[in-house]
Design brief:
528 residues; 73% helix
Length: 528
């Protein structure tokens, strides 16, 4: 009964969203009620702790809604100023092939955003941008989530490693950098294939012809981009440490991808555009706006994210001013929800939208109109996020109980460890994925499960650094399927209620990524 109660946080959302295809608003409400009921009656969580956890989830949901609102406002503002049309023209000058565009926008530009911000920001930025390029919304949401995987290991200036592994004995900067190198070594076997996986999903699920021909012709270029990203990641992790891997590797990948796409190097002569929205029309009017001016708000986003995260005085200011953190909710020590408003990517996205008005010299009414439109789009995501985060926090806080039980996630991990033992090498990435699926955070997944991964590795005689690297990689891959990321990515492209359909499409790549990571870990283990 205990195992069933612990697994309810995984089983219930899967049944309601994926099998029954319920909208997240309804499916996650039912899931939350089931998990909360089991936490109270089976796990022995006190009523006050349960209520505090629910309130913690509601508060965290508001922090995510701010990010969604900021992303949608920025895109809608750029639509009104005409910048989106200019960005589209720029992409057509590089390549009008959607297979190329998805790699440049979702994978490489998304990796740049991930390296600076993390916390699910890339998918809510790149998804709407792809819709503006003509991608149908389902393709945009699915591909944005899948693309935000490999870069997540080093997202938010190294947070998943530095914070996620901070509770490992004797953890220090040298240890974090060693883990970073191991992650990049293993990712040569997994992350290298992300561009190809994206193209395969795009053509197989969203193309008119269901064969592999449209994917196979892209294999050489996709692998070139993939090995450029993962190979340069290994180089940067070795030379500079793990903090800036996603940022530097994405810039390297963008340079190579753009140059080769312009020249048509390793690319087929035919253009693939079968995932276009049925009513999408390419604007024939040539924009007078400069390309840099059109892109400038996104450059502002990246710049502000980096400034607020690596320049200590500015970071301290944004963390300590306009702080809406709710500490020790209902007097329960440790049940806290942080919300440093100025530090939030959502606030930075809103500031970038204002900069768009100034830089592009457009009327302020473009911003106010975009804000009103965006508010209506975000409202529908609120209820789904409230239920999802309530479930997550009850699950995470379940160690606070009257039955002297470990928390639900720890119970699951210990049960898996007892079951698989010597085969743990191939289980480790999936435990990471499991944690991210439930908590919605690669960092929280690793923070929760890394001590268990470390102990299992020592017990079965495996290299702990490789196992911990697999945990980090698995947690990153879990971004593809975690419910609140899916809700967010679906909302910003106008697909509220279709979250289960999105997960059905991202589930296979998530499993494949875990398998490839396990193989990579096995190979690397032979040489260490």
């Amino acid at each position: 009964m205990l195992l069933f109660a612990a697994l309810s946080a995984i089983i219930a959302p899967f049944i309601f969203l994926v099998i029954f295809r319920m909208p997240a608003v309804k499916g996650m409400l039912f899931s939350a009620l089931i998990v909360i009921g089991l936490a109270f009656f089976v796990w022995g969580m006190g009523g006050t702790i349960v209520i505090a956890s629910i309130l913690q989830g509601l508060h965290k949901a508001l922090t995510i809604l701010l990010i969604l609102f900021g992303a949608i406002v920025l895109l809608n503002t750029l639509r009104h100023t005409g910048a989106v049309d200019r960005i589209n023209q720029g992409f057509r000058n590089i390549s009008s092939d959607m297979r190329v565009q998805v790699i440049i926008v979702a994978f490489l530009f998304g990796a740049l955003i991930e390296g600076a911000a993390g916390f699910g920001t890339p998918a809510v930025v790149t998804g709407p941008l792809m819709v503006a390029l003509g991608f149908n919304p389902m393709a945009a949401a699915t591909l944005a989530l899948i693309a935000d995987s490999s870069p997540v290991s080093f997202g938010a200036v190294g947070t998943p490693i530095q914070v996620g592994l901070s509770n490992i004995p004797n953890a220090n900067l040298a240890f974090f950098n060693e883990i970073g190198v191991n992650v990049t070594l293993i990712d040569l076997f997994a992350g290298t294939f992300v561009p190809l996986i994206l193209i395969a999903i795009l053509t197989l699920f969203f193309g008119k012809k269901k064969g592999l021909s449209s994917t196979l012709t892209m294999v050489p270029w996709a692998l070139l981009v993939g090995i450029t990203y993962t190979g340069s990641s290994l180089l940067y992790a070795t030379l500079f440490g793990q903090e800036f891997v996603s940022i530097l590797a994405s810039l390297t990948g963008l340079a190579i991808a753009t140059l080769t796409a312009r020249k048509g190097f390793l690319l087929p002569k035919t253009t693939w555009n079968e995932a276009l929205q049925s009513d999408f029309k390419v604007s024939e009017n040539k924009s007078n706006m400069g390309l840099i001016k059109a892109w400038s708000p996104y450059l502002v986003v990246v710049g502000l994210l980096l400034i607020t995260r690596i320049i200590d005085p500015i970071k301290a200011f944004t963390l300590n001013h306009v702080d809406w953190t709710w500490s020790n909710i209902l007097g329960i020590e440790g049940i806290t929800s942080g919300w440093e408003v100025l530090y939030s990517p959502g606030t930075i996205l809103l500031i970038a939208a204002l900069f768009a008005i100034l830089i592009q010299r457009k009327s302020f009414s473009n911003f106010t109109k975009a804000s009103k439109e965006s508010l209506g789009q975000v409202k529908s995501a609120g209820l789904a996020l409230f239920s999802t985060l309530a479930l997550v926090q009850v699950f995470s806080n379940s160690g606070l109980n009257m039955n002297d039980l470990v928390s639900m996630p720890q119970y699951i991990a210990e049960t898996l460890a007892e079951t698989f033992g010597s085969g743990w090498l191939f289980v480790a990435p999936f435990l990471g994925e499991l944690g991210a699926f439930i908590t919605g955070s690669a960092t929280v997944s690793t923070l929760t499960f890394s001590p268990i991964q470390f102990n299992v590795a020592n017990e079965v005689g495996m290299n702990p650094q490789i196992i911990l690297a697999l945990q980090v990689i698995g947690a990153a891959a879990g971004n593809m399927i975690c419910v609140h990321n899916v809700v967010a990515a679906s909302t910003v492209v106008g697909l509220t209620g279709k979250e289960g359909d999105v997960i059905r499409k991202t589930l296979t790549p998530a499993i494949l990524y875990g398998i490839l990571a396990g193989i990579g870990g096995f190979v690397i283990m032979q040489f260490i």
